[in-house]
Amino acid sequence: MVRRSAFAVSAAVVLALAGCSGDGQEPGEMVPPTTTAGAPAETGEASGAVAWAEQVCAAVAPEVEKLGAGPNIDPSNPQAAKDGLVTYLGDMVDSLDRMIDGMEDAGAPPVPDGQVAVDRATGTLEEAKGSVESAKAELEKADVNDPAAFQAAFTKVGEDLQKLSDLDNPMAGLRGNKELNDAFQQAESCKKLAGTGSTGTVTPTS
What's the pLDDT band for 29 if we cut at 50, 70, 90? Predict the structure, then answer.
């Protein structure tokens, strides 16, 4: 159960973060403005937003790949199973940290309400990181020599991890900003990142 839950959570994070861009047009998707000649209309602000999105997606991409691997757990060996999941959870915390750092290092995106959108996304990632850290701490205390207690601890960790899938999509706040949504669709690293997961879109609200 824990392995399935951990993998489901990692997959949810991957899909959420890979949803930076979508090539297909979906209802409500914002289409980047074009000139009459059909070339993208690049204002200074738009160009800066694309550069910002490129930096963020380039920082996120390696972490998406790592999380997509899932935990290495041997159910026939309790100690190995515990060690494998503890290691995976630690790696997940590190990846979430680097994702947060990547967004913060990029600075405020040069669009209206850009910092508000970034704060919302990093806040969701911080919440996820805290939950994973808590699950990891609980699992580290589990006694593999007490089968019943160990199974109960594993089950509890699995339930806690599964709750992470209920968190808001950390990219929703970013893609909900019209200018950032357009930028994510144009940045090359975001287009490549979208190929690793969901291409779903979020209808911008500003």
Answer: very low
Residue 1 scores a pLDDT above 60: no
Instruction: Domain ranges for the chain, please list them.
Output: 2-11+44-68+78-194
Give the CA distances from residue 90 to residues 99, 155, 186, 203, in Å, rounded to whole numbers and listed in that order: 14, 18, 33, 34
- Give the Å distances, CA to CA, from 80 to 75, 90, 160: 8, 15, 21
> What is the DSSP secondary structure assignment for residue 34, as one 8-state letter?
B
180, two tokens: 């950032």
Whether the Cβ atoms of residue 128 and residue 78 lie closer than 8 Å to each other: no
pLDDT on residue 8: 52
- Most confident of the following: 27-31, 115-119, 161-165, 190-194: 115-119
Query: What is the rounded distance in angstroms from the CA atom of residue 71 to the CA atom of residue 89?
Result: 8
Where do runs of H (alpha helix) occur along the chain?
Answer: 2-18, 44-68, 78-105, 114-141, 147-163, 172-175, 178-186, 188-194
Query: Residue 40, SS3?
Result: strand
pLDDT at 105 over 90: yes
Single pTM value for the model: 0.73
Token pair of 125, please? 């990632």
